[in-house]
């Protein structure tokens, strides 16, 4: 058996032991807090499962018009099931975090807030779970600080341009006179089409987790609308290719019925990152309606298990250890 295979087997064994140890531990909760970044309040939440310095950290980075608390149920389940210490940031203008001036809005400013948050919590390295806009922010942060990233779970992301090349009826009708209006109208219809899936299943619990931050986000919509325009101009394809070349593990996940970031966008990202797409039943925001789904994808499917092995092997190597102690 080669050294690499032996190390991988040790990682997998330790992970399975860890999963057995924490599974069913039902008292994990996300604790809300805030800090000041460049004179602006940034809100975030931290899971209370502190298991020591070797624990793996993960940042759950939300999408546009969402906020960190909307992903609390998912993060609690990940903490309970995998033992990760979860952090849910709310980016500027979302979830009660103070919005930035229009001239300060950028993916770089979002990445800086992730950096300050990690420094504030003493996190040296972390897994980044990025959804939609949050996936673009994760790529931006990883490009600036690849040494601080254990891996990226890229979920229906908006870091490549195919998603805003709308091909529906309205873009075709408006293309000769007002192409931007047609594209925005088609995007609005796509968002509306995603709502039934978002509310499928446990409607009341889903609404309870979404409504408080939807109200907060509506209050700042005038300050965050330029973020949508910024995302329409985003193309981080070269950065994704560079991160794959330096060995950042990727797990690409996509809702089968996502009409916001389309299947063409998934294929575009997969080509750049050199990975296969893990297709998930649901739409653009499948993880909000099914907060246990992410942990199941990681534990039960081959692509998920391979990602866990790659992440934990990267953590092992970065710590300068050739083997894991028994958990």
Largest sheet composition: 8 strands, mixed
Give me the count of strands.
8
Order of helices and strands: HEEEHEHEHEHHHHHEHEHHH
Which percent band covers the strand fraction? Answer: 5-15%
Alpha carbon gyration radius: 19 Å
Shape: globular
Name the helicity range. 40-55%
For the record, the CATH class is: Alpha Beta
What is the name of the CATH architecture?
3-Layer(aba) Sandwich
Number of domains: 1
Multimerization status: single chain
Class based on secondary structure composition and strand pairing: alpha/beta
Distance between the termini: 23 Å
The CATH topology turns out to be Rossmann fold
Total number of helices: 13
How is this structure best described in words?
Helices cover 50% and strands 15% of the residues. By secondary structure, it is α/β, with parallel strands linked by helices. An 8-stranded mixed sheet has the order 1-2-4-3-5-6-7-8, with helices on both faces. β7 (250-255), α10 (263-273) and β8 (277-280) form a beta-alpha-beta unit. It is globular.
Looking at this protein, list some descriptive labels:
8-stranded mixed beta sheet; globular; alpha/beta; Rossmann fold; 327 residues; single chain
SSE topology sketch:
Elements: H1 3-22, E1 30-37, E2 40-47, E3 57-61, H2 72-82, E4 85-89, H3 107-121, E5 126-131, H4 133-144, E6 149-155, H5 169-174, H6 179-198, H7 203-219, H8 221-232, H9 237-245, E7 250-255, H10 263-273, E8 277-280, H11 286-289, H12 293-300, H13 302-318
Parallel strand pairs: 3-4, 3-5, 5-6, 6-7, 7-8
Antiparallel strand pairs: 1-2, 2-4
Helix pairs in contact: 1-2, 1-13, 2-12, 3-4, 4-9, 9-10, 12-13
């Amino acid at each position: 058996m080669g050294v690499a295979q032996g190390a991988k087997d040790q990682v997998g064994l330790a992970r399975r032991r860890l999963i057995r140890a924490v599974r069913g531990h039902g008292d994990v909760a996300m604790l809300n807090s805030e800090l000041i970044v460049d004179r602006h309040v940034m809100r975030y939440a931290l899971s209370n499962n502190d298991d020591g310095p070797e624990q793996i950290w993960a940042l759950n980075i939300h999408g546009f018009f969402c906020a960190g608390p909307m992903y609390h149920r998912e993060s609690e389940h990940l903490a309970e099931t995998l033992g990760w210490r979860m952090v849910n940031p709310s980016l500027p203008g979302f979830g009660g975090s103070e919005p930035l001036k229009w001239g300060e809005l950028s993916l770089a400013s979002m990445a800086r807030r992730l950096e300050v948050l990690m420094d504030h919590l003493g996190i040296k390295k972390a897994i980044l779970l990025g959804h939609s806009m949050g996936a673009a922010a994760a790529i931006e942060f990883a490009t600036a600080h690849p040494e601080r990233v254990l891996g990226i779970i890229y979920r229906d992301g908006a870091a490549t341009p195919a998603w805003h090349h709308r091909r529906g009826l309205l873009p075709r009708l408006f293309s000769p006179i007002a192409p931007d209006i047609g594209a925005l109208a088609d995007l609005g219809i796509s968002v509306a089409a995603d709502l039934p899936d978002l509310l499928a299943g446990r409607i009341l619990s889903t609404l309870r987790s979404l409504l408080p931050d939807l109200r907060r986000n509506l209050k700042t919509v005038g300050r965050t609308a330029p973020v949508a325009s910024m995302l329409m101009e985003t193309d981080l394809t070269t950065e994704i290719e560079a991160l794959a070349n330096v060995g950042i593990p990727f797990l690409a996940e996509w809702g089968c019925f996502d009409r916001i970031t389309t299947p063409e966008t998934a294929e575009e990202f997969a080509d750049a990152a050199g990975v296969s797409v893990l297709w998930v039943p649901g739409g653009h925001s499948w993880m909000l309606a099914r907060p246990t789904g992410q942990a199941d994808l990681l534990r039960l499917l081959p692509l998920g298990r391979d990602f866990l092995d790659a992440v934990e092997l990267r953590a092992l190597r970065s710590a300068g250890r050739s083997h894991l102690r028994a958990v």
